[in-house]
Amino acid sequence: MSRPLLSLLTFLFLSIICNAFSPENPTDRKVLVLLDDLSVKSSHSLYFQSLQSRGYDLDFKLADDPRVALQRYGQYLYDALILFSPTIESLGGSLNAAAILDFVDSGHDLILAADASASDLIREIATECGVDFDEDQAAMVIDHTSFAVSDTEGDHTLIAGDNFIQSDVILGKEKIKAPVLFKGIGHSVNPANSLVLKVLSASPAAYSANPKSKLSTPPTLTGSAIGLVSVVQARNNARILISGSLSMFSNRFFRSGVQKAGSTINHGRSGNEQFVTEISKWVFHERGHLKAVNVRHHKVGEADEPSIYRINDELEYSLEIYEWSGTSWEPYVADDVQVQFYMMSPYVLKTMSTDQKGIYYTSFKVPDVYGVFQFKVEYKKLGVTSLSLAKQIPVRPFRHNEYERFITAAFPYYGASFSMMGGFFIFSLVYLYHK
């Protein structure tokens, strides 16, 4: 290979890497889309077009393509992965469940859509992310009270779901205008797992079973415990969307009208397009991504940051928090940001004030304990990326020449000492010279 050609290839590769996810531009840009069949590209084109219109570069590949790869020379080629291949048993190239989980562990994002014929591979990836699909391979979510009137098969597996999570960060400030059409498999979420959130749940009357056979045993998944769509925000702030329905993203469901059984309201269009668009904005960090900058602390009345504090010093602590809007950083406004002055346990815990422009500040007195302390900000809130800030600072006691020479509270002791000395002097004179 000639030197000019090698230089050109190196430049192109570095350009790909440099345009990837970065702290200053956290929105995913390069997205790999893996499909069971390339026909999905056209049957779900409205969803893909909505992503491309927002600046995403989608790379479509068959899931079993032997040339597919997430990384090359130790560098990831993509910022996010969309896995629209529910029936795939084995991924192509070097891809497998472990490679996809490593991709997420490296801070990248994932959208996974399954259906009633979900393969063991898809189930394994979902389980590792904290979501367990129904073990029955033929099971689907059935609802005899909240099914869509347009369910032509009559088995009530076409559900009009409207049991959404109450979070403006995840689903946007504008309320979802219509129920979401869902046809697929349900899943369960461990309630003790705080990283997994059900975004769309089934109604209390729903259950998971094989619609083509009679129930011989009670279903394992019932009611609102059934998750239809869930999200995961990992501890490294990677985000995952897991849906039990691939059809939910399809053009047909986007364009369909929806009317719930027992309701007279016929919505002109389902809420699928609005729902998946808003949740995709969250998954791809267009919303709810925080950063903290300009962390400062100093003594009251001073501007420079000291290398050490003295017990009982008055100090001020401040920082700035911004939220990514998809195009720029905007001030983040909240009333629950706290700072700890920490050594083994928090000696000081203060809720910080804000100027509504992204600046948070507080002041407090250094405790009367010396040692190595930390300023700690641990901010975790539903839907937003967590902030974890820590900075060590030593605290020393008073030096011998910094104590007050005469303490008012000690005046009685001073008086007792001088009176004792005066009495001893008088006693000595009387004893020596009295005859």
Précis, in short:
The protein has helices at 3-18, 39-43, 45-53, 97-105, 120-128, 168-171, 251-255, 272-283, 411-433, and strands spanning 30-35, 57-62, 71-72, 75-76, 80-84, 109-113, 131-133, 140-142, 159-161, 163-164, 180-182, 187-189, 196-201, 207-209, 227-233, 239-243, 289-299, 309-310, 314-324, 329-331, 338-343, 345-351, 353-354, 359-365, 371-379, 387-396. With 435 residues, it is α+β, with helices and mostly antiparallel strands.
Give the topology, please.
Elements: H1 3-18, E1 30-35, H2 39-43, H3 45-53, E2 57-62, E3 71-72, E4 75-76, E5 80-84, H4 97-105, E6 109-113, H5 120-128, E7 131-133, E8 140-142, E9 159-161, E10 163-164, H6 168-171, E11 180-182, E12 187-189, E13 196-201, E14 207-209, E15 227-233, E16 239-243, H7 251-255, H8 272-283, E17 289-299, E18 309-310, E19 314-324, E20 329-331, E21 338-343, E22 345-351, E23 353-354, E24 359-365, E25 371-379, E26 387-396, H9 411-433
Parallel strand pairs: 1-2, 1-5, 5-6, 6-16, 18-26
Antiparallel strand pairs: 3-4, 7-12, 8-14, 9-11, 10-13, 13-15, 15-16, 17-19, 19-20, 19-24, 21-22, 21-25, 23-24, 25-26
Helix pairs in contact: 3-8, 4-5
Keywords: Endoplasmic reticulum, Membrane, Signal, Transmembrane, Transmembrane helix
Family: Belongs to the DDOST 48 kDa subunit family.
Pathway: Protein modification; protein glycosylation
Number of helix segments?
9
Number of strands: 26
Query: If you compute it from the alpha carbons, what radius of gyration comes out, rounded to the nearest whole angstrom?
Result: 32 Å
Outline type: elongated
- Portion in beta strands: 25-35%
In which range does the helix fraction lie?
A: 10-25%
